[in-house]
Design a protein that fits this description.
Layout: H1 2-25, H2 35-38, E1 42-46, H3 48-51, H4 57-62, H5 64-69, E2 72-77, H6 102-106, H7 128-140, E3 144-149, E4 153-155, H8 160-163, E5 193-195, H9 201-216, E6 222-225, H10 233-246, E7 250-253, E8 268-270, H11 272-282, H12 289-301, E9 308-310, H13 315-321, H14 324-328, H15 332-341, E10 345-349, H16 374-388, E11 400-403, E12 412-419, E13 422-429, E14 435-437, E15 443-447, E16 452-456, E17 462-464, E18 469-473
Parallel strand pairs: 1-2, 1-10, 2-3, 3-6, 6-7, 7-8, 8-9, 9-10
Antiparallel strand pairs: 4-5, 11-12, 12-13, 13-18, 14-17, 15-16, 15-18
């Protein structure tokens, strides 16, 4: 009997230890978002409709652990609300209502940014419960979730059009208008949406409450705000502090206006200028000196706490201006590495990790490939470095950035980033030509991406192939 009791005791102890070990492996509770959370973060723009053949929250949620492998810490979800049917567009610019064939009409799902109900969920994507599961899974994997917010306009089906027409801009005839260029009075071409008018103070409170719903009821961690500088600053000054009273939030704006990066409004802006310079370098319209000028401009015109989201693509660029492979050609990898190593926060857009080489349809259902290749491996390594090496801190307390002068600064971009004991050096030939150069770098480093040792000596001449680059660590 004693032997049986002893055996049972040993077995119970083993099971207890096993359970404790399993508990130890479970994810820790996600900490509240702070400025420090952004320093080493990678952001992922999730186009739920096009991410999978199903185009659902559920299908995306299954892959969140894959995003964790890429170092993603913030998931930006493109708009998930119901889409207006009134004035819905086709890919070629016609109105869906002009199509007689019912099957053909059903192909056109509308713009994500033509919202008919701010608190609703597009049933094509799933349910409110499905979205909550997505958020919980992200949180369990150490990621924050921000929701795309369209404060500038609504779809033409929105109830405010009939119930609260005073919330909208109107022409001289008293008709609600689509968004107009304030300088010319001409339409931007966004005829599938109706322009909101924030000169009405009632709209400030109403819109703030629509945003608050997602913070309080759905537990999101912030917003990406569409065309943020088209919305009066007075609204953001009113709404953002009140939203942050409910919960610390991460605020990304589709803008690079310096005044919106002040006074605890938006955390990060779009790195549009850097993106355009990179495109121009790839097309041989500019040289690396364009980036140098931009870095000088940012230091002179923005506060030290201002920073930007760096990208080679996003939903607008992919659909309307072409994939990164169309715009940047063989320079894609060098520019991708640059977005991770320069100051700021790098972005991955849906499909980039799987080498998506075509434009995703904007108004119709589409899907991305899911075969892992060299870009998945590259994003994985870059994400690990960004997450773990403080020399790549890039938010409000960034690591230092020092340009390394070379003998050919029109072709070669070289700089070092340092923080405490960490150091990272980027050297890239951002041109289509074989390029010889020297630079004042001495010592032995590890080429992070190949794990090979590289030694630099004084006066040494280097020869880089087109778009060749190094990321060096001590």
């Amino acid at each position: 009997m004693k032997k049986i009791f002893l055996l049972a005791l040993i077995l119970a102890t083993f099971i207890s230890c096993k359970n404790n070990n399993e508990t130890d492996k479970s994810p820790e509770k996600l900490a509240i978002f702070t400025d420090a959370s952004a320093e080493n973060a990678v952001i992922y723009e999730a186009n739920i409709r096009q991410y999978s053949p199903e185009g659902t929250f559920e299908a995306f949620t299954k892959d969140i652990p894959e995003l964790r492998k890429l170092g993603v810490k913030i998931i930006w979800i493109m708009p998930i609300q119901p889409i207006s049917m009134t004035n819905r567009k086709t890919t070629d610019g016609r109105l869906v209502t002009d199509i007689e064939d019912e099957k053909e009409r059903a192909k056109y799902l509308g713009s994500y940014y033509s919202i008919s109900d701010y608190r609703g969920i597009n049933p094509d994507l799933g349910t409110k419960s499905d979205f909550k599961d997505l958020i919980k899974t992200a949180h369990d994997n150490g990621m924050y979730v921000i929701l795309d917010w369209v404060a500038n306009h609504t779809g033409w089906d929105h109830k405010w059009i009939k119930l609260n027409p005073e919330y909208y801009h109107k022409n001289k005839a008293g008709e609600v208008t689509d968004p107009l260029n304030p300088e010319t009075g001409e339409s931007w071409g966004w005829t599938d949406v109706a322009h909101l008018d924030y000169s009405n103070p009632d709209l400030h409170e109403v819109m703030k409450e629509e945003m608050m719903y997602w913070v309080k009821d759905l537990d999101i961690d912030g917003f990406r705000c569409d065309v943020a500088d088209n919305v009066p600053t007075s609204f953001w000054e009113f709404a953002i502090p009140k939203l942050r009273e409910a919960k610390p939030l991460f605020m990304l704006m589709e803008s690079n206006k310096e005044y919106l990066l002040k006074n605890n409004l938006f955390d990060v802006g779009y790195g549009w200028e850097a993106h355009h310079v990179m495109n121009d370098i790839a097309k041989e319209k500019r040289t690396v000196e364009g980036l140098d000028s931009l870095f000088v401009k940012i230091k002179a015109e923005y506060e030290p706490t201002a920073y930007f989201m760096n990208f080679t693509s996003n939903h607008d660029e992919n659909s309307w201006n072409g994939t990164e492979y169309e715009r940047m050609g063989d320079g894609v990898e060098a520019f991708t590495a640059l977005t991770y190593t320069m100051p700021g926060m790098p972005l991955i857009y849906t499909g980039q990790e799987y080498e998506l080489k075509r434009r995703l349809k904007f108004f119709e259902k589409d899907s991305i490939p899911k075969a892992k290749g060299k870009m998945f491996a590259l994003y994985e390594k870059l994400g690990t470095l960004k997450n773990s090496n403080t020399a790549l801190n890039g938010a409000k307390q960034p690591a230092t950035f020092s340009r390394i002068q070379t003998s050919n600064d029109k072709m070669i971009m070289a700089f070092s980033r340092e923080h405490k004991k960490d150091k990272v050096v980027y050297i890239g030939n951002l041109s289509k030509e074989n390029t010889a150069f020297t630079l004042p770098l001495e010592g032995t480093f590890t080429n992070y991406l190949t794990n090979q040792k590289v030694t630099f000596t004084k006066g040494q001449k280097h020869n880089f192939k087109p778009w060749e680059y190094y990321i060096l660590v001590p």
